[in-house]
Structure formats: C-alpha cells, structure tokens
User: What shape does this take?
Amino acid sequence: MSTERMLLIRGGTVVTPETMLDADVLIVGETIRAIGAGLADLLPGASPLEAVGIPTPTGAALTRGKADVRSGALEVIDATGLLVLPGVIDPHVHIELDTGIYKTPDSWFVESRAAAFGGVTTVIDFATQFKGQTLQEAVEQRLQEAAPSVIDTTFHVMITDLPPGQEEELGVLEELGTTSIKLYTTYRPNYYADDATLLRLLEAAGRYGLMTLVHCENDALVTAQTQALIAAQETGWRYHAMARPALAEHEAAARVLFLAKEVDAPVVIAHNSSARTSAMVAQARERGQVAYCETGPQYLVLDSHVYEGSEPWRYILQPPLRDPGEPEALWQQVAQGAVDMLMTDHCAYTHEQKLAMDDFTKTPGGLPGLETLLPLTVTYGIGNGYIYWPDVARLLAANPAQIYGMWPRKGALLPGSDADIVLFDPGYEGIISAETLHSGAGYTPYEGLPVKGRVVSTIRRGEILVRDGVFLGQEGSGEFIPR
Assistant: This one.
C-alpha cells in the first residue's frame, strides 16, 4: 500500500507544447504518475497506470506500481473550467542581486513566494563569480543565499575573473550541476568581456559542454552615446533609451553569433528588445548554428513612449524599451517561432531606490516581473492572436527546460516528471496593481494594465504552494536542480 501523498487533478484541460486534452492528472509524491481521462474511476485497486494520449519521453524515469488509495492520502482537486499548465520556468532572474554598485534589498523567500503566486515553479538565477573567487566558491555561496526559496532553483554562472590559461576551471561546472555561463559585452569594467575574452570563453564553454548566455550591447556605442547625453546635461530618466540604442544590441548580437559559430559553441542571446535581434538568431539557427534567444513582457507590451510620461523611473532597464511598433514586430517573431523562451530578467530594486535621483546614469536598472510573466503572456500573446495555449507551454516551460538541460524532469506534463503544475482560470479579467502583487519591489512597470486569466493554484513537486490567492508553502522547501 502506498504511503506517499497522492493528488488527483480532475476535470481540467491539460496543455502541452503539442496539444490540449481533457484529462485528469495523478500525482504520487513529487512526480506525475499518470495523465488520462477518468483516472478517478481507476484508482481503487487499480492496475499500473499509464499516460493516455501523451507519449513518454526517452529517458523519463517512470514511476510505476499500483495506485492504492486505501491509505486515505488522496486529495482531489476539481479543475473543471481550468487549464492545467506545466509549471513556469523563468530562465533569467536576479534575486538578491549584488552588482558591486547596486544591491536589491529583496529576499529569496519573498521573491520566490511572489513567483509562486504567478505560477513560476523554477527559476534560473545567477551565481556571480566575484573577483578572486573560484567558480565552485561562487556556486556554493549562491546555494546558501537561495536556501530560503519556496520554488526550485538553478544557476547560470557569471564569469568575471577567469584569466587565460585557467579555462579548465569551467570543467567543474558540470559536476556542480550548473551547465551554463553568462558573459557580457558591456558594463565596463566589472562585467565587460572584450572580443578576445568572448572568443576564448565561448570556445572553452563549448568544449566542456556548457551553454553560454550573453548580454549583447556594444559597449563603445553605449559609452559614447551616454557621454554625449551627459555633456548635453540630458541625464534625466526620460533620456534613458537614447543612451542605449537598438543598434548597440544588433551589432553585439551579430558579433557574438559570429564568434560562437567560429568555435562551434552553443549560445543564447539574452533579453532581445528588438525584432531584428531575434531574426538574426533565427537565421543563424537556419544555417545550422546552435543558437537560441529570449525576450520578455517588458519588450512585448511596453515601448519608449513611457519615457515621455509622468513616471519614467518605472522603466529603467538594460536594454531599454524600444520605439513604438517594436513590440508588434517582436510579437511577430514570437509567432513565427524565432523566439525560444520568454523570461522576466526580474530584478526587485525598490520604489525608493528607483526614485532616489532623476538621473538614468545613477538609477539601478532592472524591473520586477516574476509574478506577471504568465498572465501578460496569455493576455497579450493569446489575446491578440500571436500564440496559442500550446505555445505558452513551449515558451514558458518545455523550451527553457530542454535548452538548459532540465527536461523531462522539468517543463513537462509527463509520467515521471516533477509534478510542477499551474491551474489557470482563463476567464478571469482584472487589472495589474502593485497593491495585489507580492514582490518586495513595491511597484510594477505594468501598473494599470488589464489582464485576462489568473493563477488559481501553483503546485511544485506535488506540494500546493498557492491555492485561491492563499500561500500554503514553506520557506526553504525549494530545491536546487542540478543540470
């Protein structure tokens, strides 16, 4: 007789990257045991349950055995009228960020709880290698910092101090389960990597089987434009976008793609703010290069008009928001399959930090967004006809899991996968407001925007974290996910 916790989600519509089907989901312990119609009728004294209508992936660790409910451990959730989505994976977030210049005063518990309210069950944050640290020390320090998380975590390792001749240190990352690194073409001097460094580290990362995520902005162009604005005494928040032109992103992305191809290294071009960038990545992939890209709601929903409004402080981020018309063009890239992942680049600087000085050169860049990723994607992607429900499962779960080596444990609604599930009400209509969000930032760049759909429940590895607006999880219950 099974003594593990059992949860049956009954009567919902299951959404996968391939299809939608009316089916029940049976969870035993932390994993999905079966998906199919009428599972409730099979439970007492049932034969081993198998998935119905969904193929089992190669390498999936199927949990088999009789599903006996005589222990009384079964809980049934009625999901009638709800969509059953895979738990969202946000592959690019910054919680408890310390840049060496600015520091977010947030906490892993608070921000991971906010993520759970938004249906996010796994995040990929960053383990920054500070000067003088080994890569292992950077990862171990980040593991300690992330321990209070209520959702699952893993890390990209930010390489800042790996001189020539020490590239073999990258070999430890597979053992640590952190098989991706982050590089920057800007932010001189603390993060910036010149072309020789980029080429050297891309080659080494490829050799050790690592994925490289690159922030692409031409540092010389950004620096020159910023200095020109300073000279003209045009440093208020409203000038922020002018300091970091789209051309800087286009040039740096093209250069990184070229260098990565030369050394046969897989690469992800981070947070595309422009349709042209995503198109370049798609073209490189069509030519046989292993290249991916990501964008987020900030670039798909907002544009540079907001810098002319009364609260431009809400929108200081790098890269900045682009010209009107760019969100539509970027959505078209998403619709055509050029964009692989949606993310938030979540960064919870506070209302007070943002308002400290009306000077974009002295305002920390980054926006909160973990809790609003799913509803914004649904509202402005599905609502405007750019994507469909299976695309949501692909862009927010399956693709990041596959690209970063977590699939099928994560990102999949399949037997043997972690039971990371979102129950979503597509009929809800509301307005985004900081008053109802849970991030420590205390503000949202999406204040007042209408949304359609809301998270009813978030389940992480079989545990209900959020139900009907109430947080039920426990601090520190998240796990590190080795990749």
